[in-house]
Amino acid sequence: MSTTVEKTATRTYQNLIGGKWTDAKSGKTFTSVSPANHEDVIGTFAASGADDVDAAVAAAKAAFPAWSLMPAPKRGEILFKVARLLAEHKEELSRLMTREMGKVLTEARGDVQEAIDVAYYMAGEGRRLFGMTVPSEMPDKFAMAVRRPIGVVGLITPWNFPVAIPGWKLFPALICGNTAVVKPASDTPACLVRFMELLMEGGIPDGVINGHTETGVDITRRAAETLKRVSLELGGKNPIVIWEDADLPLALDSVVWSAFGTSGQRCTAASRIIVHRAVHDQFVEMLRKRVGALVLGDGLDPSTDVGPVINDVAVDRIDGYMQIGRGEAELVIGGRRARDGALAKGSFFEPTIFTEVKPDARIAQEEIFGPVTSVIPVDSWDEAVRIVNSVTYGLSSSLFTRDINLAFRSIRDFDTGLGYVNHGTIGAEAHLPFGGTKGTGNGHREVGQAALDFFSEWKSVYVDYSGKLQRAQIDMTFVDQEQV
User: What is the largest CA-CA distance in the chain?
Assistant: First the structure.
């Protein structure tokens, strides 16, 4: 592996509050380093506290009236410009992401492209914030429902998709007329800062978006105390089911991409491979050979297949599951931290496969969030369905088969919010809802039109032009009784 990768100069980053870049009120800072090389310091960042949050919320609240009153098509025009700017700066953002978060450059480009797609999609919704009109049950009366913004929204985003997920959350919030305070993960703050700079350049008014780092509260509890809505997207333990009639080379490509892409650090990563016993041994050998050829390294190196995990805490957590897995199943390949050569400077973990895994084993039930997958053999469809649904999560599932009947049964029987047939468990499109069932979240969905429902309030409106008092239900019942 080449050890020469592109670096940029270390810089100092600030919070964006009310259109101005400011230090944390406490003056405290923290540093972020590259997971591929801990000697590579990304920058110094403002370590924000409650006072900074209050200032950001106040700025967003002050900007809300003007932004919410701006016609939605005009807000859409600004998002169109933002989308074009993101596209123009795609390579710059992607390289920063690979350096700061670790995913290989091709995946980082996909991350940025997701944000571009959502920006274009939500910009178009500026002319499609549809309400509804319905016939009234009364004569000479008009009935309709319209969307209204909810106010200031707080967005807490993870490190594994440091541009895509802020776009998923922010763009539907903005097109609905809300203002926002955004908190990035402390592992990837530089990506969000650059993202915010481009939004400001695109014409988002001062105070409409505000960003800060390093603050933590019990969000759900505090929100419940004031009846504020919360959308949670949590975890997954996603299965790929490979049936006896599957196209095995296609399934292999998909498993490798789904299990080891982003070093397994996706909520949709395929951490369970449920294989019909008739093809189990053949597929495991194919998978072992492919995974054994994967190249670990810095994501900016074009020869790299799998980058680092986010930090050493993640390495230690994954390694802890290796000790558990060795007592529950058979380790086929991997299972340890990679320390060869330049890899010793970063947080690298070998792609890992366990086989002969019991469905109730901890490595088959708990989210590891690393480059680890478990192969589980099955003999029947009913057994496969039970195993798919046996975990506390319900985000994504996949089935490889040539049997159209089984394909539709999987859509019906697998209890997940995302379902794939002859495709891996990862990959979402901007115009469809994203989210899961059970312990994966609290029922809300992101992106697509479903996101608009979370970031807006429905208001029902009645216009009575009859010139007299018409009382719904009461008057109609009275008329019916008189006629009787």
Answer: 92
From residue 356, alpha-carbon distances to 364, 370, 386 in Å are 11, 19, 17
Is-catalytic flag, 107? no
Domain count, the chain: 2
* Domain of 418, in residue numbers: 238-430
User: Catalytic pick from 114, 233, 350, 446?
Assistant: 233
The sign of the CA dihedral 97, 101, 105, 108 is: negative
pLDDT digits (tens, 9 = 90+) for 248-269: 999 999 999 999 999 999 999 9
242 plus 227 within the same structural domain: no
Q: How would you list the strands of the sheet with 132-135, edge to edge?
A: 132-135, 141-149, 456-464
The CATH code of the domain that includes 416 is 3.40.309.10
176: annotated active-site residue: no
Q: How many CB atoms lie within 10 A of CB 97?
A: 27
C-alpha dihedral (68, 74, 77, 79), degrees to nearest 10: 0
The string of pLDDT tens digits covering residues 94-126 is 999 999 999 999 999 999 999 999 999 999 999
**Do both 115 and 242 map to the same domain?**
no
Residue 349 DSSP label = B
pLDDT higher than 60, residue 1: no
**Is residue 357 in a domain?**
yes
Q: What predicted TM-score, i.e. pTM, was given to this entire model?
A: 0.93
In a domain, 57, yes or no: yes
Residue with tokens 């216009």: 463
Neighbour order of strands in the sheet with 29-34: 11-12, 37-46, 29-34
Neighbours of 345 (CB within 10 A): 17
Choose the catalytic residue: 114, 125, 267, 350: 267
Q: Is 70 exceeded by the pLDDT of residue 272?
A: yes
Residues 6+ away with beta carbon under 8 Å from 478: none
* Pairwise CA distance, residues 33 & 311, whole Å: 9
SS3 464: strand
Whether the CA torsion 352, 356, 361, 367 is positive or negative: it is: positive
CA pair distance 172, 452, nearest whole angstrom: 6
State the Cα–Cα distance between residues 299 and 301, nearest whole angstrom. Answer: 5
Residue-wise pLDDT for 324-363, tens only, equals 999 999 999 999 999 999 999 999 999 999 999 999 999 9
Q: Domain containing 140 — which CATH number?
A: 3.40.605.10
Q: 335's torsion region: left (phi>0), alpha (psi -120 to 50) or beta?
A: left
CA 35 to chain centre: 20
Secondary structure string (H, E, C) spanning 286-330:
HHHHHHHCCCECCCCCCCCCECCCCCHHHHHHHHHHHHHHHHHCE
